[in-house]
Design brief:
By secondary structure, this protein is of the alpha+beta class. It contains six helices and 26 strands. The protein has helices spanning about 5-20, 70-80, 130-140, 200-205, 260-270, 320-330, and strands spanning about 1-5, 30-40, 40-45, 50-60, 60-65, 65-70, 85-90, 95-100, 105-110, 125-130, 155-160, 165-170, 175-180, 190-195, 215-220, 225-230, 230-235, 255-260, 285-290, 290-300, 300-310, 310, 315-320, 335-340, 350, 360-365. It has a nine-stranded antiparallel sheet. Strands 6-2-3-4-17-16-15-10 form an eight-stranded antiparallel sheet. The protein has a five-stranded antiparallel sheet with strand order 5-1-7-8-9. α1 runs antiparallel to α2.
Amino acid sequence: MKFVADKKTLLSMIIPAASAASNKTTLPALEGLLFTLKGDTLTVCGYDLEKGVRTLGTVVPMQEGSVIINAQKITSIIRNFPDCDICIESDERNMVRITGGMSDFSIHGVTAEVFPGLPELGGDNAFNISRSLMKDIINSTVFAVAQSEARPILTGELFMIENRTLTVVALDNFRLAMREEKNCVFDNDNRFSFVVPGKSLSDLAKLLDDSDEPLRVEFTAKYIIFKLGDTVFFSRLLEGEYLDYRRALPQSNKIFATINRSEFIESAERASLLVDEKLRTPLRCRFEDNILNISCSTQYGSVNDNLRIKKEGDDIEIGFNNRYLLDALRACRDEKLVTSLSTPLMSMMIEPAEKDPNSSYTYLVLPCKLKD
């Protein structure tokens, strides 16, 4: 294989593909990128058996062929070249030579035959959605997926589509994040659902820009494929029955507090300065009259912080893990929020104070038991 391409073209293909290469394996093929040249089209693919990225680009061809090159090494090498044309060639022993400007590298490659077979990158079911909206949906929910493999299905996010409405849910044993967008799905009026691994969604979000260009989403029984022009991102779907998240949503809350989001975050951040992470000291939140008092007492000392709220219902004292509370608040996009509660042992619900008929979000944070 031998071709010439400029630095910008190579990086636009290598960097996305490298995000899918494995860095926790002893198999050189999974740590590498598969370079394949046919005609003047170069294909670069990274794949860790769970998710993958394939990119296409036009280069100046000299000899067709294919080789696997270590993802971290090739990325670092190309990044450190000056802005110039770069020649990449491999021989029958899979030695790869990279030249450009006044630099000349030779690194060991791996035969292309050992690269794992890719799934079919197309599906019968498909729809289109705005790239910026998908990015925003992922970033506002993915923090709530479970990190533990104890219940593998909860390490993913549930996507449900019905009547062109997309509902996305992430939850673990301590919190829930839900986002609903109406009239955002195009070219498909069918009803379907699937669960995408949270790690795959985090990697996809890094590839998405803030444009309104369409993102093509196709899926099969086992895989989901996202198409962004010449870049294809694909991931294995999680199998199994997702939890009935509706049962977690409180139906009888009687205490409501309207709160300024920025002030709530700043107050919780100040109180968190004395949290003992090893002991998981909760923030003590007391909703009394029209004041929210957030306090914390640990081996390091104590803190009391107050902010004004507008409350309806009884007074209540409830404890929260500071990180779970802050994750939910930071994911909200409205400055005026409504928190609703019922008892110190039931989840607090966080929603926007002003409802949008086409876009909504809900966060639940499970309380911690407070010691007197």
